[in-house]
What does this fold into?
Amino acid sequence: MKDENRIPETTYSNYEEFQEENRKRINNRLNIVLWFSILTGPAIAFGIRIGIFPEVNYFTCIVISLYMLFLALIHFFLVKKWPDSVVTGFIALIALNVLLVAMAFNHVYINLTWFLVPLLSLLFVDKSIYIVSLAMNYIFMVIATWMIAPYAYELRVDYNSPIQYFANYIGGYTIETVIMLVAGYFLGKTETGYFRELIEKNRVIKEADEKLKDQLAILESMSEIYSHVNLIDYEEGTETSIRDKDLKAIPIDLEHQTHTAMSEKIMLSIVSDQLVGFKEFTNIQTLRMRLLNKKSIYAEFISMVTGWFRAQYITVETGEDGYPTKVIYTIQNIDNEKRKEEKLIRISLTDELTRLYNRRCYEEDCIEIRNNKLADSFVLISVDVNGLKVTNDTKGHAAGDELIKASADCLIATVGAIGKAYRVGGDEFLAIVHTNDPEKICEQLKDKASKWKGVYVENVSLSIGYATSKDHPEDNIDALERIADANMYKEKEKYYREKGIERRIW
It folds into this structure.
């Protein structure tokens, strides 16, 4: 069963929130006090029975108990309606003061309880509530003393009049009230300061705890994605593997150590031509400078064991100077992604029918070639299939595709080891090679074509033209392509003449 009066285990965001919750708790407890105050009647009756209160009758006991039952019920409903109200608290304090007045009026003297009420008000941890409560308490003491002064005067021989009795007792009560005021004020001030400081400390601790929980949750989720996740703490000089359930921190000598234990382990499998780059990227002495004002940095490398992987540093916390103080170091295997990426790139740059590079690839290569001076060995070869249209028209497109594939096979078999071959049109091909004997390349290509035999077509015939950077040193690749095409078309015209074929047919 839930206990509504139990102090909740919570951290307040501010002092006002604490006061609101505290008023709810104290009002609930004061209501319990009022319910127990109903027992005042039976307690007085017991005192009558044993002779302690000879001047009190049993009817008074009943009236007091009924009065306290009535006030406890009223306060109960106030607590339900306005649980955090200051007024609800004052009603309970007033009820207790009225009870003391009633007891005094009926000659039940327990003077110590007069100062119990303001002491109870200190539980509200509010100096203003205490001062008001003490003032109300003093007023009720004055009323009670004035009411009993005539009766008390008759019992005493040391007073000349009821007024003298009243003045004597009120003087004493006044001094005690002043003492209570000063003591209570400083006690309340100390109490308030203590709770304010405690709440602020708890708030800071809670924020730090929540931040730590968030960071751990992020790190745990990261550990499911990354093959390695380490926390580098520059303030503590440690490296901690998040995958390690014990979270054992490994010391780092930040003055002399350039790489973490994880990096040194990975270095053993890095391919040789990337080792220098990996060492530069994972240097922890330069890392903070490289991460300044950045959320993260990453680089991709190849492991001889696992293939492609991505190393990444992520800033977790920074100091006042902007440099990171805590950094997450992750290793993620991306070999499958790289293979898919390479496959997509290959598909986008490859002709589907012939598996040669396509025009897009040729144009991208041209951009790079234009930015560099052409070597004397640079040769551009232009190739065209003879008779493709007639073959398509008479034997079908399957035969035409066979001719195109045959041309591509002959071209790649000839230049594949020394250059790069492209299909740039229906039956148009280009090849970039580096050779000092382009004539020999062209002869080898023609020889391979002459030996080819197909299923739909008996043979394949190619027209070939080329242009060299050595013969045209002032021209770029675009000019060389035009020259190669022109030479290719001259050879095609020669082929037509030798075959006695009308050009318009082809």
